[in-house]
Each structure stands twice: as structure tokens, then as C-alpha cells.
Amino acid sequence: MSGGNDRPIEFDAVVVGAGFAGLYMLYRLRELGLSVRVFEAGDGVGGTWFWNRYPGARCDIESLEYSYQFSEELQQEWSWKERYAPQGEILEYINFVADRFDLRRDIQFETRIESAHFDDASARWTLTTTGGDVVSSPFCIMATGCLSSANMPDFPGMDSFQGATYHTGHWPHEGVDFSGQRVGVIGTGSSAIQSIPEIAKQAEHLTVFQRTPNYSVPANNGPLTSEAEARVKADYPAFRKRNREMPFGAFADAVRGGEEAFADSESDREQTYRDAWERGGLTFLAAYGDLMFNKEANDTAAAFVREKIRAAVNDPETARKLTPTQTLGCKRLCADTHYFETYNLPHVDLVDVSKIPIECLTPAGLRNADGEFELDVIIFATGFDAMTGALLSIDIQGKEGLPLSEKWSAGPRTYLGLMTAGFPNLFLITGPGSPSVLANMVPAIEQHVNWIADCVDHLRTSKLSKIEADIEAEDDWVEVVNEIANETLYPQCNSWYLGDNIPGKPRVFMPYIGFPTYVEKCEDVVSKGYEGFHTNA
Ligand code: NA7
User: Fold this and answer.
1) Which of 54, 190, 360 to mutate to test the pocket of ligand 1 (most atoms within 8 A of CB)?
2) Whose CA is nearest to atom 38 of ligand 1?
3) Is 59 in the pocket of ligand 1 (CB under 6 A)?
4) SS3 530
């Protein structure tokens, strides 16, 4: 695509990615009367929900919360079938949204953006696609997702393995039949914990290779009752507001014992944990306000979960291996359906590769110092290059040709997670330095999209061509994000929040903790005339 004579096609705004973020961004910009082109690598909308089709894939936030709120009609029209929506239902929902708001006509599918370069003189971004198209626009908005760049370990012998390999984040659309197969799963994060019970139902034999055991709380999933749905829909805006005021922008209906775990007696605390466990899922972490701040408080909750794991697993040695020792929640807590019980099945084995790591893949399977494990299928449930991976896979260059990869070589630096100094008119939806993955993603996305759309509108109506973050504001913000993280227990273990899961990635805590204070800050910045940003005519 070009405008003839090799001139790029011009748009008022270009958006990269057609997941929850890209779709709503398109909706808002179109409302402002802009010509917009969205580029999407997949052949459909949905982003993370388009790619992550592994068996058991399901949202760990309840459906009534993990959905758009920008349209009251939409939130009234759509009915979720389950308390926690499976991947297929979320994909159905996002397709429904794309159709209902006629969004597809501005989306170019099966097109990956290779580069985005800024020209200061014309104040325009030029983007090139894998298909060789060139487009130009004053605004470049990255809706590339926080968990979209798969982490594939580079074991020696990867190509020698004669069986099939899959990554949970790039699952074949036609599904996989594991009947009669010896399956190996590498990893025990959320994707593994959701898929293992489902794969075990089919596979002849399942071996799980675990580097770090994880905490998981039963989701207690089930059909969404019409009473529960009606209760929320009777006043959806009030439900959204209650959630917006919570630290994670979610879990307003969680079991809450209070702000401090030790304010309760031991027996009251145990009862709170029992109730929270019964309610299920990630809301367990909201049982007390100080669980992510006070290690002793956290220990009481962690001990409760460890006991549950020991009770669920019959073989004491397997139970020991499955029992985490790290701080509860500093690696993202998982929500499962019969995960630990799966290890009681005679055809399911657990191999601890923490001290005896996987050395290589072989034609027949994989090997560590203990020997070779023969497999027909290897599943990499090894996660993502979170928050920065998708952005840095694009050749992004700001003023004076500065590559983003160079600017972020010691870790991502942003102001509010929305913009980065030296890259005018480049907006990041749920970028590093914003609550993003430590908030309910959909409301976090909507808050960012609204901020960006209002900013673009402000620039256009004020006849301003550029906005850029001030380096001082950015430096201060990076410090604030780190200071807040350091007051919590999050940095205490290796996690993808810190980039620890990717060899060589700088260890920097990426999400901002505290949705309500963040929203307040963003609003404050605007009310002070975009404080911390500078604009040009
Ligand atoms: P995660 O949570 O990053 O989990 C990846 C898992 O893979 C984790 O258990 C890792 O162990 C393991 N891993 C990664 N590399 C290796 C190697 N080389 N050898 C052995 N084991 C390895 O990704 P998920 O996809 O499960 O979940 C991501 C998020 O998506 C989730 O939190 C939800 O928000 C949705 P480690 O812990 O690093 O020792």
C-alpha cells in the first residue's frame, strides 16, 4: 500500500494491534472524526484471546468485570455464560463488539508492523509493514498488548525433536488431539496450570517439567447465574465505580477481612481465608489489605494455601515438590480448576527441573542430567516477554533516529506508561509504568484509551502538532513506580513483572501499583495543562 509515486498513504492516526485496546482506540478516534488504520498481525480481532487457544484457556478475572464499560447498551446486551469466561467466549464477545460498532472496515489483518520512524520536521510517523506497505500519520498508538510476545526457550537440539512442539501463546486454531500421546509440558505458570488438567484428560501420559512451583486458588468457576448477572446489570455503572476504587481496579466483591491481617484473631483470620478460598480465584489476595505489604501477614495466607496443596495431592513427595516457598502473589497468583488433583492421576508425573535443568531436546524427547524423557509432544507453557517484548520487536525510532531499544536498554522508561521522552506523538496503551497487568486489564485499557483520545482531541483543537513527555517528568515517574513497588512484596521473587523470566532482560519492576491513585494522577496532569509534557505548534 502506498499513495502512488511511492508516497505513503496518510491517516490521521495509526493503531498497532486489534485486541481490546486497539478496538476501543479505533472506536474513540473515529468518534473524533479521524481517519484511522489499525494493523493486526492475526487474521481476526482479539489480541491475546486470538492467540492463546490452549485447552483450558480462561480469564482469571470474572466476566462481569473483564469487559468494556464504554457503552451501557453493550454491557446490557451481552450475557456471559460462565463466571470466568473461557477463551472462546471472550473471542466471541470481542468479535461481537467489532461487528456491533462496525470496526472491521478500518482494520488491516494479517499485517505486522516492522518499523515506525518519527520525522521531527514533518511531525509524522512513518510505518512499514511486513507486506511492504508504507503509511504515515501524525499519531502512532501502540496497542500491542502486555503478554503477546511469546518466550520460547532456546534449548540446544530444538530442531532435532521428531515430535510436535507448541507454545501455549500460539496455539493452533484447529486444536490438538493428544489421544494416545506422551505429552510433556514445560512450565507451571498460569497457562500450564489451566491447560494441564485438560491435557491430562486426553493424553496417554503427561509429564510436567516444573522449575518453580506456583500458588493457585481454585477458580470455583461455574455458570453465571441469572441472579448474579441481574444484580450487576441493575446498576452496572455503580458496580464499575466500586471496582475502579479498588487497588487493582477489581475485586470489589471479594471477601475482605480488613486492612490488616493481624488485626484479626488467628481463628477469625483462618475463617476469612476459608471464605476467600471458597469464593475462589485471584480475589483471595484481597482478603486483607496488607497481604502484599507485610511479609508476616503474607506468610499467614501463604501457609493456608500450602496446606490446601498438601491436602489435595495424595503422594507426599509430589505434594512437597508442588508446594511453593516464595511470597504469595509476587509471581502472579493463578486460578485453577482441579490443577493439584491432576497429579493424583496415575498417568501424570511431575519432574522438578529447578536443580537439574532441562539440557536439550533430543529426537525422542528431552534430556536433563537424570536422563532422557521420551515424548511425542512438547508444550512450551513458558510465558511471555511481558510488557516490552511486543514493542521492542518493532524497529521504533524517535527523534534523531533514536531507537527505542537503545533508550530502554537498561529497562523501560516512560511518563505515566503513556509516552516516552524523545518519541513525540507515540502513545503506549497500558505501557510499562502504568497499572496494566496489576489492574483489571479492560478498565485499565479504557482509561488509557480515553486519556489518549482526549489528548489527541486537545492537540487538534488547539492546533498543536506534537506532544512529548519531559525527560524530568519521566525520570521522576520511573522513580515513583520503583519506590511504590519497593514498598510492596512484589519485587521479592523472580517474575515477569520484573522481566526476570527473559535471559538478559534488565531487572526493572514494570507495572505501577495502585489503580485509583494512578487514575487520579493522570487526571491531575491534564487539569494542570498536561503537566510534564511539552507541546509544539
Ligand atoms: P508464566 O507465568 O511466565 O509461566 C511460565 C512458566 O514457564 C514458569 O513456570 C517458568 O518457570 C517456566 N519456564 C520458563 N522458561 C523455562 C525454562 N527454560 N525451563 C523450565 N521452565 C521454564 O507464563 P504463563 O503463560 O503461564 O502466564 C502468563 C500470564 O498470562 C499469567 O500470569 C496470566 O496473567 C495470563 P519460572 O517460574 O520462571 O521458574
Assistant:
1) 190
2) 501
3) no
4) coil
354 conformational bin, left if phi > 0, alpha if psi -120 to 50, beta if neither: alpha
What pLDDT does residue 2 have? 52
Interior angle at CA 145, CA 471 and CA 216, nearest 5: 115
Distance CA 103, CA 497 (A): 32
Q: Three cell numbers at 197?
A: 488438567
CB distance 287 to 317 below 8 Å: no
C-alpha cell at 227: 441472579
| Per-10-residue mean pLDDT, the chain, length 537 | 69 98 98 98 98 98 97 98 98 98 98 98 97 96 97 97 98 97 98 98 98 98 96 98 95 94 98 98 96 98 98 98 97 98 98 97 97 98 97 98 98 98 98 97 98 98 98 98 97 94 94 98 98 96
Q: Which atom of ligand 1 is nearest to the CA of 496?
A: 3
Per the confidence metrics, is the pTM higher than 0.90?
yes
Nearest CA to ligand 1 atom 28: 383
The CA 189 to ligand 1 mean position distance, Å, reads 4
Residue in 195, 196, 211 to alter for ligand 1 test, most ligand atoms within 8 A of Cβ: 211
Q: What is the DSSP letter of 342?
A: G
Could you identify the atom of ligand 1 that is nearest to the CA of residue 354? 39
CB-based burial of residue 56 (10 Å sphere; 0-12 exposed, 13-18 middle, 19+ buried)?
buried
Q: Which residues have a Cβ under 8 Å from the Cβ of 214 and sit 6 or more positions away?
A: 188, 189, 190, 193, 324, 331, 334
| Cβ pair 490, 326 in contact under 8 A | no
Measured from the CA of 358, which atom of ligand 1 is nearest?
19
